[in-house]
Design goal:
Belongs to the class-I aminoacyl-tRNA synthetase family. InterPro entries: aa-tRNA-synth_I_CS, aa-tRNA-synth_Ia, Leu-tRNA-ligase, Leu_tRNA-synth_edit, M/V/L/I-tRNA-synth_anticd-bd, Methionyl/Leucyl_tRNA_Synth, Rossmann-like_a/b/a_fold, tRNAsynth_Ia_anticodon-bd. It is a single chain. With about 1000 residues, the chain is of the alpha+beta class. The protein folds into five domains: about 200 residues, 3-Layer(aba) Sandwich (Rossmann fold), CATH 3.40.50.620; about 190 residues, Valyl/Leucyl/Isoleucyl-tRNA synthetase, editing domain (Isoleucyl-tRNA Synthetase, domain 2), CATH 3.90.740.10; about 130 residues, no CATH class; about 130 residues, Isoleucyl-tRNA Synthetase, Domain 1, CATH 1.10.730; about 60 residues, Ubiquitin-like (UB roll) (Roll). Helices cover about 35% and strands about 20% of the residues. Strands 11, 12, 13, 14, 15, 16 and 17 form a seven-stranded mixed β-sheet that branches. Strands 26, 27, 28, 29, 30 and 31 form a six-stranded mixed β-sheet that branches. The chain has a four-stranded parallel β-sheet with strand order 2-1-24-25, covered by helices on one side. A hairpin with a 6-residue loop joins strand 14 and strand 15. About 0% of the residues have low confidence. The protein binds one RNA strand of 87 nucleotides through helix 10, strand 12, strand 16, helix 14 and strand 31.
RNA sequence: GCUCGAGUGGUGGAAUUGGUAGACACGUUGGACUUAAAAUCCAAUGGACAUUAGUCCGUAUGGGUUCAAGUCCCAUCUCGAGUACCA
């Protein structure tokens, strides 16, 4: 009986779907409420954005790994939840809609269909009954619900958690805002209880907005004109948009923001208790950017104004020789003197024109302008000139720095450039060439009360003295900014918000979801409103509690709705919790479900989400924790980043011949229109011209001579050109299908190949998989030709999960061959079409396992179990191969052994395992079978083949009993003829014997 | 520039606390079967010398610790990822 993988895989995929084999039990659904016998295990993949291109072989890598783990945990007796869904709001579908008019919901649904088909054919054990789609109103109802929760909350620094806004209102009514210690906007006016109670309703709402965890405020945002939307910091890479690479400019706009900065410290602390990859933790730490120092206040001379600065080096405060403000700083226009006005304004204009990208690319050019104003040093009372410079960023800290040129290289460079004095406040340090920033070696000098102190002490004392003056305090600063939450796009979650007199109002949760309205065009309106401005039915009726036509807006009971939509990360920030109870229409998830599932045990996905999805999700989780909705403040215990699978591009080579007269003048460049096989190119690169190449070159030169007459060409340059060729035209031995190549493109017709042994060998290079490089490998084709089980095994076999590694389809014959070999072991137990030489009955075939059989099996169990626990899937595939090779050699026909082996293999190659399991006579799915127990007694050895080394080099091996003593071993080894041969009469200085390991003879 | 990670055959990669380097595959070469091809099976396969036994060199490079180093320590080089005026 043949291993007919296509048939087997289709059969079992159908079986799993029909029997809901991988449906995870929920506490509420089980017989005994809240008490499922099995312990829970939650395995999660980062859900995909369903793009139009479908999957390539790189995409399922992480899904295969998580699937193996999920299936393994089922064998180990866990109630495993392994859900999958779609992050289906996003820019590509909308861009496509703008171009074609096709509704994004339609393209998205089509793409999801393709994804589902591709996922199904790989045989994942997903519980599809839990599927979520972020663009489904039934799902985004809860995204809107969370938004309302966040809006109705503030952050209490005293309790260090989010609290209901009602508690803040109560505090205001009682004591005003002076006693409240909250995370809020920067410039807040203080008010008493009496003030508060006398405020108008609108005024109260304005004040509360400054405290809410999501708030509407005019903020400086990253505006991307090409995409017509704002972008969050993590959506910008190198000053251009992550998607599309469009330029981004700074712009002030009224936007929803999320007060993630309130959670900066907890997001940092939380990293210590989760098992996530260090690089990922590092980049989150970096992104949060905690720095400890002090704030200091400098009074501005002749103005009623102060400059607030943040510094990490308050110990160097006596080294200040100037102040620098960001050009955008509010004070600049106020304090600039009439004489300096022209220069300052010109400078501000010049910096505004420079894009973010230019500013970043050009960090070496020093520029700035003097405002003409002076600040007063808090201690020395000396006047300090105030400058502006674009090396100070408006968005970080207070947008102003106290410049200490002797201790900071940027300040130093600025001072040098503008001839500002550089006072030295470090003992015994030369600062004539560069600034001195080594905190460890710092001893302060020329600094009044700080003289002679090292860094730490000086820092403490400086802060103490600043506090005494009332001009500063110790402070911790974070780089993390509040996250802009509005997008001027169509294809996203609508906000559950309407506006009364310009003030945002939440729609009551019982009226959710607020579904996306239909629009004619997906572009911004003529007046520059977001696409939802095109909707005709987009007003909120507060009486009927429903969305009505805009014409009904009466500014009394019917009000306009919010026109922005939520960003891509809104829907993905709590999806892992919704999976626990995905169809619940009453609440986001039931208490029972949440208490049972708790958190994600294993989360697998790409490292590109380090500072986006994974930071925002942790933020929302902490919020949900504060409000008592979830029991854990970190949502995923363990996270693994799978590496990228790169493509192996193929290249063909042509030459062009450049004829030069004398040293430099190019007379003529001639492409040869011949394709040369790789080895000839290799030779050329080593300055070696093969006769076959020479012939072509001569032809070109002859042709030239015919046209131009005889000349001496003493300089012939040969240039090699390589072109990508579609990898489907290349076989596993790198041979090009020359016929196919000629037909590939019209211009290839009739080209000549210069071959070796009749074969054209292409060049190979590892590159990112992409259409333009013609190196994309589609899993559909692999499944068709080799089967999903071969694909799964091969993806794991390629190398460690976290590492990036190149795909090479040729290698799949290895794992495919293994499966065939595995199959053959079971043939004696198969019904009907037994091959002639194995024609036996089952009972005849079955024999008792031999000692060797058991040894092979149990060493496989041990290794595979260890490997899975360590996520070392590549090595367990090798272990299976060794196991099958051994059992084949042993001609094993023990049902006991083969049953256990089928279970071991089943997480990796589930289809063949199910088939073999049923052929052995089992009627239930193999996924219900317990994992074989390891028994060490089968591995006990009585002897060991000792490596005998001389001076650390292994020379020969000797089989010795394991119970032999050190002395006995030495005796036997020394007496051995090969030992004497090695020593050649010398007496060894030392003999090292590690029983059970090694013998080393020194001398 | 800074932070982190990695360098092992022609290729992907093994090597658990320092203890037989190159497991397992791919590819290559030779052989069997076949009219032929495919498939399958068998054998060889780090390099150099040695046609037998065997010897020497080999885990990016140079040092060091050790009876013993891919593994530990120091320095250097190369590649990859992240980050980038963060005061």
């Amino acid at each position: 009986m043949q291993y007919n993988f296509n048939e087997i895989e289709a059969k079992w995929q159908k079986y799993w779907a029909e029997n809901q084999t991988f449906k995870a039990d929920n506490p509420a659904q089980s017989k005994v409420e809240g008490n499922i016998e099995k312990p829970k295990f939650y395995v999660l993949d980062m859900f995909p954005y369903p793009s139009g291109a479908g999957l390539h072989v790189g995409h399922p890598l992480g899904y295969i790994a998580s699937d193996i783990y999920a299936r393994y945990k089922r064998h180990k007796g866990f109630n495993v939840m392994h859900p999958q869904g779609y992050d289906s709001f996003g820019l590509p579908a909308e861009q496509y809609a703008i171009q074609t008019g096709q509704h994004p919901a339609i393209t998205t649904a089509e793409n999801i269909k393709t994804y589902r088909r591709q996922l199904d054919q790989i045989g994942f054990s997903f519980d599809w009954s839990r599927e979520v789609r972020t663009s489904d109103p039934k799902y985004y109802k809860w995204t809107q619900w969370i938004f309302i929760q966040i809006f109705n909350s503030w952050y209490n620094k005293e309790t260090d958690k989010a609290e209901d806004i009602e508690t803040l209102i109560a505090a205001f009514e009682k004591d005003g805002n002076t006693a409240v210690n909250a995370v809020c906007d920067d410039a807040i006016e203080t008010f008493s209880a009496a003030d508060w109670n006398s405020f108008s309703d609108k005024r109260k709402q304005e004040v509360l907005l400054q405290y809410r965890l999501t708030y509407l405020a005019e903020t400086e945002v990253n505006w991307c004109p090409a995409l017509g939307t704002v972008l969050a910091n993590d959506e910008i890479v190198n000053g251009v948009s992550e998607r599309g690479g469009h330029p981004v400019v700074r712009k002030k706009m009224t936007q929803w923001s999320m007060r993630i900065s309130a959670y900066a410290q907890r997001l940092l602390d939380g990293l210590e208790k989760i098992d996530w990859p260090q690089p990922l933790k590092d980049s989150q730490t970096n992104w949060i950017g905690r720095s400890q120092g002090a704030s200091a206040v400098f009074n501005v001379n002749e103005h009623d104004a102060v400059i607030d600065v943040f510094t990490t080096r308050p110990d160097t405060i006596f080294g200040v020789s100037f102040m620098t403000l960001a050009p955008e700083h509010d004070l600049v226009s106020q304090i600039t003197t009439p004489e300096q006005k022209a220069e300052v304004e010109a400078y501000i204009e010049a910096t505004a024109k420079r894009s973010e990208r230019d500013r970043m690319a050009d960090v070496k050019t020093i520029s700035g302008a003097f405002t003409g104003a002076y600040a007063e040093h808090p201690f020395s009372k000396e006047p300090i000139p105030i400058w502006i410079g674009d090396y100070v960023l408006a968005g970080y800290g207070t947008g102003a720095v106290m410049s200490v040129p002797c201790g900071d290289q940027r300040d130093y460079d600025f001072a040098k450039h503008f001839n500002i004095p550089i006072p030295n406040i470090f003992e015994g340090v030369d600062i004539s060439e560069e600034a001195f920033a080594d905190k460890g070696k710092t001893v302060i000098a020329n600094s009044d009360f700080l003289n002679g102190l090292p860094y730490k002490k000086a820092m403490k004392l400086a802060i103490y003295e600043l506090e005494k003056l009332g001009q500063g305090e110790g402070k911790i600063n974070y780089r993390l900014r509040d996250a802009v939450f509005s997008r001027q796009r169509y294809w996203g979650e609508p906000f559950p918000v309407y506006y009364v007199d310009g003030m945002p109002q939440m729609i009551a949760p019982e009226h959710l979801p607020i579904a996306l309205p239909e629009v004619e065009k997906y572009l911004p309106t003529e007046t520059g409103e977001p696409p939802l401005g095109n909707a005709e039915v987009w007003a909120w009726d507060t009486v009927a509690n429903k969305v009505v036509n805009n014409s009904e807006i009466n500014n009394n009971t019917v009000w306009p709705l919010e026109l922005n939509t939520m960003p891509g990360w809104a829907g993905s920030s709590q999806y892992f919790n919704r999976y626990m109870d995905p169809t619940n229409e009453e609440e986001i998830f039931s208490k029972e479900a949440m208490n049972y599932w708790q958190d994600v045990d294993l989360y697998i996905g790409g490292s590109e989400h380090a500072t986006g999805h994974l930071l925002y999700s942790r933020f929302w989780q902490k919020f949900m924790f504060d409000k008592g909705f979830v029991p854990k403040d970190e949502f995923a215990k363990k996270l693994i980043n799978q590496g990228m699978i790169t493509g192996t591009s193929a290249f063909v080579y042509t030459l062009s011949i450049e004829l030069k007269d004398g040293e430099s003048t190019t007379l003529y460049t001639e492409p040869t229109f011949h394709y040369f096989t790789k080895s000839l190119i290799d030779k050329l690169e080593n300055q070696e011209i093969d006769p076959a190449v020479q012939k072509v070159i001569d032809q070109v030169v002859d042709k030239y001579k015919e046209q131009w007459g005889e000349k001496t060409y003493w300089n012939k340059n040969i240039n090699i050109h390589k072109t990508h060729v579609d990898i489907s035209m290349v076989n596993s031995s790198d041979e090009l299908n020359m016929d196919a190549f000629q037909k590939w493109r019209p211009e290839n017709e009739g080209v000549t190949f210069v071959v070796e042994n009749g074969k054209y060998i292409v060049g190979r290079e590892v590159e990112k998989m992409s259409k333009s490089k013609y190196n994309v490998v589609n899993p559909d084709e692999i499944c068709e030709e080799y089967g999903a089980d071969s694909l799964r095994l091969y993806e794991m076999f390629l190398g460690p999960l976290e590492q990036s590694k190149p795909w090479n389809t040729a290698g799949i014959t290895g794992t495919h061959g293994f499966l065939k070999k595995l199959w053959r072991l079971y043939v004696p137990f198969m019904d009907g079409s037994l091959s002639e030489d194995t024609e036996r009955s089952r009972s005849e075939a079955e024999v008792k396992p031999t000692k060797d059989n058991l040894k092979t099996l149990h060493k496989t169990i041990k290794k595979v179990e260890e490997d899975i626990e360590n996520f070392s899937f590549n090595t367990s595939v090798s272990t299976f191969m060794i196991c099958v090779n051994e059992l084949s050699t042993q001609k094993c026909t023990s049902k006991e052994i083969l049953e256990a082996l089928a279970i071991l293999v089943s997480p990796y190659a589930p289809h063949i395992a199910e088939e073999l399991w049923s052929q052995l006579g089992n009627s239930k799915s193999i996924s219900t079978a317990p994992f074989p127990a390891f028994d060490a007694s089968y591995l006990v050895e009585s002897s060991k083949e000792y490596p005998i080394s001389f001076n650390g080099k292994m020379r020969f091996k000797l089989e010795l009993p394991l119970d032999m003593s050190k002395d006995q071993i030495e005796e036997v080894v020394m007496a051995h003829e090969k030992t004497q041969q090695q020593l050649q009469g010398r007496t060894p200085k030392k003999v090292i014997i590690v029983p059970g390991k090694i013998v080393n003879i020194v001398g």
